Task: inverse folding
């Protein structure tokens, strides 16, 4: 093919006009005639026995059509598999209960469901349900939950639901031979996803008896889980996904779907359920808090020689994806550094806190805080420039990950990314106020894209060139707002030489679109992008073969440009695409293809000592920041962020830059502002009045630097960027604050109070 014509260009997204004009419909925009309103009664305790539930008065209320409790759920205790293997052991099943039965595990756990003719009646019915609780002591600290005799959150004899490890070399000998050792404990807190669109959906039974669910979800494959809850065949449930108003992992688990499905199944009426913001804060998953105990040894020349890390993650009341997140954290625990002696142990533990699950970065941001803080400490104690410290220790092409030994045979963008990110900060800003101290920080990291390689990951896509030259795409891909559907359109436009305006995509419908897998794990560009490319190239090949006959040239000398098939060495020779399509129709040549892309597969590793390949590939990058710290108030103002990643190939440059900018601010919120607070399991931040996220006034200048090595496994050599973009800015800001005022904050968020306290103790 010739140079890319559409791929790599910052063209408007497929759905951009509909979004900015407000014509695009999200899940909570849909209504149906005669629909009922669903509501959820939630536990008022984080840990308690349910002695009885009396729904008598609620059922008597005029306008109430259903009141359901755990006894009404055919399969109340279920698992969410996300298409993943369940052979990998304890904790990976994603166990949860649709409605609490006998005891509750976190405050806000669903206890009963109501469907009524109006939202007001449904809320009145909730007040009429009488639940007799016996409060239990609970356990709210993961370290305490691990101790013998601790309160048991679930029904098992332990609160530990996942144990992982990695090791290589001789750690004791490594520390004995180190010239400098740094040992410290780092803590990161809960983070809410804080998406604009609350969890929402509507369900109905169609003329064929199929339960339809129109929902905002990152995983339309959950139709199987809902069918299992109801005890009906999978083909009796249909998911219709909508464009999603933000997810960040918070819509990866089932949210409203089981509730509306149950209420519709019992009433035979359409049911709509939209969470209010209090419910969203109280009852959906959070990013995992971690306690991370690190010990790192190095030589005088700066070379790392030994690392020992103990990670403890808080799962909250149910496992959900906690084991997976902790497994990712284990793999990421040593960062992108060459360390000959490593030992990592990671546990994830049930508590009676709000449950935790997927959040953007999926186990990478937490250990990044610890190891990059230590790298900065080593740099200072050894008087080595922070960029040089990374240059000395970073993995390079052909090197291996120090935790698992996975070898990187494609381009590794270190130390290039670190050098570019640091240099782009420019000359330091000078403070004109004695109370304002300026500082700079750097962090590097790696983050996988694509699911772990022992999960048999697949994605499919259907591409059809219509007889008038327009194109139809069908894909089960959920669009999170990052431009996933636009990505597929751009690939097809590139391959078939048609404008974006002539492409129509149908997506996220389990009855009509080939399943593309979850929009999680930064996998869609890699997986669905490759499936789409495979299908489009099959159709392209048939077009070129027929055009070669018409033009009497070798098909290898043809390209499709602006709806014409042209001879590459003589563009004056061409035939219109429309004419070739008609010739194919006359010859009975099918111009459609449904293709499947399969990710590479490796056997399930020994999870106590994970070795070898665990992910298809990683994205490498660096972020730097300049901050201004007010030593009187402790306030931190971020002046500039530079974010530099090897994206392989930017399919849409504007979209990639948007992900890198947005990821930087998402991570900045994690570092400086966001703190979902619980007091003995009781949420204290249940609205945006208490839970602060960065506003437009907080956003600094963000400079994006794209490295395009072409070494990715995605289409045209692309790598994933969605999650990597947010995973290392937090430690860069920690290091910048230290550079400014000489105190190191070892727990997130970096609040003014923590800075002032540290300055007083300095």
Result:
């Amino acid at each position: 093919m010739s140079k890319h014509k559409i791929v790599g260009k910052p063209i408007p997204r497929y759905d951009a006009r509909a979004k900015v004009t407000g014509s695009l419909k999200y899940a909570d925009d849909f209504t149906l005639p005669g629909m009922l309103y669903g509501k959820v009664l939630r536990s008022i305790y984080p840990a308690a026995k349910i002695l009885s539930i009396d729904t008598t008065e609620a059922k008597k209320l005029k306008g109430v059509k259903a009141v359901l409790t755990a006894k009404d759920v055919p399969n109340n205790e279920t698992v969410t598999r996300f298409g993943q293997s369940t052979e990998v052991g304890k904790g990976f099943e994603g166990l949860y209960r649709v409605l609490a039965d006998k005891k509750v595990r976190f405050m806000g756990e669903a206890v009963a469901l109501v469907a009524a003719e109006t939202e007001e009646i449904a809320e009145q019915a909730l007040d009429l349900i009488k639940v007799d609780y016996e409060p239990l002591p609970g356990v709210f600290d993961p370290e305490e939950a691990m101790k013998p005799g601790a309160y048991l959150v679930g029904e098992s004899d332990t609160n530990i639901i996942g144990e992982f490890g990695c090791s290589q070399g001789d750690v004791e000998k490594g520390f004995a031979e180190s010239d400098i050792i740094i040992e410290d404990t780092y803590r990161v807190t809960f983070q809410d996803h804080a998406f604009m669109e609350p969890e929402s959906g509507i369900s109905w039974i169609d003329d064929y008896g199929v339960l339809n669910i129109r929902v905002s979800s990152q995983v339309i494959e959950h139709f199987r889980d809902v069918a299992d809850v109801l005890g009906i065949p999978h083909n009796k449930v249909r998911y219709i996904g909508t464009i999603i108003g933000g997810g960040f992992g918070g819509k990866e688990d089932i949210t409203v779907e089981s509730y509306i499905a149950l209420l519709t199944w019992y009433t035979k009426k359409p049911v709509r359920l939209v969470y209010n913001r209090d419910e969203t804060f109280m009852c959906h998953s959070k990013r995992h808090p971690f306690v991370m105990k690190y010990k790192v040894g190095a030589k005088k020349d700066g070379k790392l020689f030994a690392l020992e890390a103990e990670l403890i993650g808080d799962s909250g009341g149910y496992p959900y994806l906690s084991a997976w997140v902790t497994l990712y954290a284990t793999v990421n625990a040593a960062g992108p550094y060459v360390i000959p002696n490593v030992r990592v142990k990671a546990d994830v533990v049930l508590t009676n806190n709000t449950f935790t699950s997927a959040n953007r970065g999926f186990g990478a941001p937490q250990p990044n805080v610890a190891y990059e803080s230590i790298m900065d400490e080593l740099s200072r104690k050894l008087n080595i420039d922070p960029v040089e410290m990374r240059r000395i220790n970073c993995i390079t092409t052909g090197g291996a990950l120090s935790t698992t030994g996975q070898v990187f045979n494609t381009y590794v963008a270190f130390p290039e990314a670190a050098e570019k990110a640091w240099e782009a900060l420019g000359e330091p800003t000078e403070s004109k106020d004695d109370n304002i101290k300026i500082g700079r920080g750097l962090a590097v990291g790696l983050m996988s894209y694509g699911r772990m390689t022992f999960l048999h990951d697949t994605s499919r896509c259907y591409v059809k060139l219509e007889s008038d030259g327009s194109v139809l795409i069908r894909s089960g891909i959920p669009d999170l707002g990052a431009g996933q559907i636009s990505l597929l359109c751009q690939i097809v436009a590139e391959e078939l030489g048609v404008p974006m305006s002539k492409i129509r995509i149908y997506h996220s419908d389990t009855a009509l679109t080939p399943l593309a897998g979850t929009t999680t794990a930064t996998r869609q560009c890699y997986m669905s992008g490759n499936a789409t490319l495979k299908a489009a190239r099959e159709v392209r090949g048939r077009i070129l073969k027929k055009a070669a006959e018409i033009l009497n040239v070798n098909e290898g000398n043809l390209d499709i440009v602006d709806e014409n098939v042209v001879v590459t060495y003589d563009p004056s020779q061409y035939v219109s695409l429309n004419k070739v399509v008609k010739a194919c129709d006359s010859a009975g040549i099918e111009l459609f293809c449904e293709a499947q892309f399969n990710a590479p597969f490796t056997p399930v590793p020994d999870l106590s000592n994970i070795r070898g390949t665990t992910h298809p590939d990683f994205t490498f990058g660096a972020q730097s920041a300049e901050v201004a710290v007010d030593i009187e108030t402790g306030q931190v103002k971020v002046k500039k962020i530079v974010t530099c990643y090897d994206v392989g190939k930017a399919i849409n440059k504007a979209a990639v830059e948007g992900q890198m900018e947005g990821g930087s601010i998402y991570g900045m919120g994690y570092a400086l502002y966001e703190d979902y607070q619980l007091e003995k399991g009781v949420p204290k931040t249940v609205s945006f009045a208490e839970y602060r996220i960065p506003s437009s006034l907080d956003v600094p200048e963000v400079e994006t630097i794209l490295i395009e090595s072409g070494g990715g496994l995605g289409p045209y050599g692309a790598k994933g960027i969605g999650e990597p973009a947010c995973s290392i800015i937090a430690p860069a800001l920690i290091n910048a604050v230290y550079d400014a005022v000489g105190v190191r904050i070892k727990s997130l968020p970096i609040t003014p109070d923590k800075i002032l306290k540290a300055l007083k103790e300095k």
Q: What stands out?
A: DSSP finds 18 helices and 30 strands in the chain. Residues 31-136+196-246+251-283 form a domain with the Aldehyde Oxidoreductase; domain 3 fold (CATH 3.90.1170.50).
